[in-house]
């Protein structure tokens, strides 16, 4: 299956079930996507074998970002607020307070014990908004959902709100020039790291 809504211009790794790529419209240097080859709506939709492979990649690339960029955050729209209707998990170097991402307050989030909690939540609610900062994992109250929910919020938290809308940023030559440098920097760090 060819996924026309993702660019595979900057691959980092390929496995039996996944592609791991540099995000071509990154929020910052170090922005990585983990994308399944087969169509699934979200991580909680993965069959067990695919999920196990995902967890290994998630851990591997989270460790890479933590070591190389000194921070790790992730997000997935879990069939809610997606602008691309195919599972893909974002990993970015970001360290900050969760209320910067969810200023509506801590009463609008639920702490998770592990990624496996997503399956239970998905089965009950039909979707979720998942994010992490460091080792802390949460889901967000679905009543807050809007398209590209986390992308806009992390872009603002990183001081780059103009990158919240990936479609608009593509038309900005200055941003796209920065993007090429950021992707190059990420690829260099990855090639040194995994050798």
Q: By helix and strand content, what is the structural category? A: alpha+beta
Number of helices: 6
- Contiguous low-pLDDT stretches (5 residues minimum) are 1-6
% residues in beta strands:
15-25%
The CATH superfamily is identified as HIT-like
- Give the proportion of residues in helices: 25-40%
Explained architecture:
This protein is of the alpha+beta class and about 200 residues long. The protein has one domain: HIT-like (HIT family, subunit A). Helix content is about 35%, strand content about 20%. The protein has 6 helices and 8 strands. Strands 1-2-3-5-4-7-8-6 form an 8-stranded antiparallel sheet. The protein starts with 10 loop residues before the first strand and ends with a helix. Mean pLDDT is about 95; it is low at about 1-5.
List keywords for this structure.
195 residues; alpha+beta; HIT family, subunit A; 8-stranded antiparallel β-sheet; 6 helices; 8 strands; globular; disordered N terminus; catalytic activity; HIT domain-containing protein; HIT-like; Histidine_triad_HIT; HIT-like_sf
Compact description:
The protein contains six helices and eight strands. It has helices at 48-69, 98-101, 117-125, 149-157, 166-169, 173-193, and strands at residues 11-14, 18-22, 32-36, 73-76, 89-92, 109-112, 130-133, 136-140.
């Amino acid at each position: 299956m060819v996924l026309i809504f993702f660019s595979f211009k900057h691959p980092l790794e390929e496995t039996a079930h996944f592609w791991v790529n540099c995000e071509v419209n990154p929020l910052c240097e170090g922005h990585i996507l983990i994308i399944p080859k087969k169509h699934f709506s979200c991580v909680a939709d993965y069959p067990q074998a695919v999920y196990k492979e995902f967890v290994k990649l998630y851990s591997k690339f989270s460790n890479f970002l933590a070591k190389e960029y000194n921070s790790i955050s992730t997000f997935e729209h879990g069939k809610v607020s997606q602008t691309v209707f195919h599972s893909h998990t974002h990993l970015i170097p970001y360290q900050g307070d969760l209320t910067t991402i969810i200023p509506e307050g801590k009463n609008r989030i639920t702490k998770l014990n592990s990624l496996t909690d997503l399956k239970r939540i998905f089965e009950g609610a039909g979707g979720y908004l998942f994010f992490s900062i460091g080792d802390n994992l949460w889901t967000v109250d679905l009543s807050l959902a809007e398209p590209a929910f986390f992308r806009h919020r992390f872009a603002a938290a990183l001081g780059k709100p103009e990158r919240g809308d990936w479609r608009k940023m593509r038309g900005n030559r200055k941003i796209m020039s920065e993007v090429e440098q950021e992707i190059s920097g990420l690829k260099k760090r990855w090639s040194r790291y995994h050798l």
